[in-house]
Amino acid sequence: MLLDDEVIRLVGISDRALAILGETDRTIDTRLHAHLPGKGPVSVQAYVVYHNAVRGPPCKGGIRMSSDVTLQETIQLAEIMTFKTALMDLPFGGGKASIVAGSGLPPQEKATLVREFAHKIRNELTSGAYVPAPDLGTSPREMAVIFGETHMRECVTGKPVGIGGLPGRREATGYGVAVVVEQAAKELLNSGLSGLTVGVQGFGNVGSWACTFLSERGAKVVAVTDASGGAVSRDGIDIEELKKHVAKHGGVEGYGKHLSNEELFKLDVDILIPAAIGGVITRDNAGDIKARLVVEGANAPTTKEADEILSRRNIPLVPDILANAGGVVASYDEWMMAKSGSRTNKEETYSTVRKVLLDAFRETLDYSSDHEVSPRKSALALAAERLVGTMEDRGWI
Ligand code: NAD
User: Fold this and answer.
1) How large a percentage of the chain has pLDDT more than 70?
2) CB atoms within 10 A of CB 49
3) Which residues form the pocket of ligand 1, taking CB atoms under 6 Å from any ligand atom?
4) CB of 82 within 8 A of CB of 25?
5) pLDDT tens, residue by residue, 317-374
């Protein structure tokens, strides 16, 4: 459970509300059977989890495709979505789906599995109970497959622009991370971004766009790692060149001087951005972190023990439900657009993400100083207040 005793006490959450927030509303546990070109027939596990739908339906959350994703992790990610959508004040419940298959599968094989997945959960998609988006291992291409199956634009967000995707949605999470980093540097480090050094884990959708926007704003990205390895350059990495390298070679490794994922977390940088998988900042490496600020681009990259260690070491951390919420904020606009038929442009998307995230950042820091608790506890408390309020409004408690 994300909430700890201190947050429960601060918000004054009743036992009944706590019991509801502590349980999973619904789990779909299913097998996908498909014939993959070159591999023959396969059976693959998939899950859809609705953690809490008091502010929905729909339940909102991406589809993760990874060979080691579990039901437990999918539940944890859906719970994060419950709190993230509430912190952003969006009328969505928290959901998540996962397909237990390698994120590195060729696009045609991913498409085959996602098509089968969409068949299996067709009723969830077309009834508006679950609205997916990209997450680790999936991209607009897989969302296009879902649209191809349902022919309903509001069934899925993070689609390519040509089929009703939102201009700017692709970059929205990384853009939001950069906006939050800039504001956190200003308020927590008393510094502009210019010249600040940054280390990033993950160079997929979130990490690569965060690097782009941070470099554009004058920060110096000195280290990037991913599943293949990593690269470090004290002079700063040219992000556009790194993108070309990754497009050609499939990963960061081989671009300049090697850096391992373990080394990244010990590197002397101003800002550390985990933007890949969960559970990478642990009690084993939290004591070695030299960064002055941690911003969670990934979901749940920091374990509870590590969170306490960073807190004791006075290293401020901007939590996932705030830092990486740009994607779901943009997804809300895409969903609305699909329903209304209206159109927008990239600048408007950026401007919405920026405003919503900066408002939430302000509220979170104010709560933090008023109650003398960390930004993570503050963000969770603000979200919990909204969730409990909605439960009261709906007569659930
Ligand atoms: P992605 O699949 O586009 O990229 C994932 C990146 O992580 C890749 O660079 C990959 O090489 C790297 N990676 C995978 N396993 C790794 C490992 N063991 N060690 C180091 N690096 C590893 O995924 P994404 O969409 O960028 O998502 C990254 C994180 O951000 C996830 O935690 C996801 O839940 C979160 N997130 C994504 C979005 C979104 O809009 N895509 C929104 C909010 C949060």
Assistant:
1) 100
2) 28
3) 103, 134-137, 173, 201-207, 225-227, 261, 275-277, 297-299, 324, 327
4) no
5) 999 999 999 999 999 999 999 999 999 999 999 999 999 999 999 999 999 999 999 9
CB 117 within 8 A of CB 47: no
CB 38 within 8 A of CB 56: no
List the helix and strand counts (H, then E) for the chain.
Answer: 15, 13
Q: Quote the CA–CA distance of 98 and 109 in Å, as a whole number.
A: 16
The single residue listed with the structure tokens 């600040």 is: 196
Residue pLDDT, tens place only, 216-266: 999 999 999 999 999 999 999 999 999 999 999 999 999 989 999 999 999
Report CA(206)–ligand 1 centroid distance (Å).
7
Does the predicted model carry a pTM greater than 0.90?
yes
Residue nearest to atom 38 of ligand 1 (CA): 135
Is the distance from CB of 271 to CB of 181 less than 8 angstroms?
A: yes
Q: Which residues contact 43 (CB under 8 A, 6 or more apart)?
A: 31, 32, 33
pLDDT at 103 over 80: no
**Residue 324 CB neighbour total at 10 angstroms:** 29
Q: What percent of the chain clears pLDDT 90, i.e. is strictly above it? A: 98
So which residues are the catalytic ones?
96
Q: What is the pLDDT of residues 122-157, one digit of tens each?
A: 999 999 999 999 999 999 999 999 999 999 999 999
**Strand stretches in 12-124, DSSP E:** 26-36, 40-52, 59-60, 63-65, 93-99
What one-character DSSP code corresponds to residue 191? -
* Distance from Cα 341 to the centre of ligand 1, integer Å: 31
Return the percent helix, strand and coil in the chain, to nearest 5: 50, 15, 35
* CA angle in degrees (0–180, nearest 5) for 281-325-260: 30
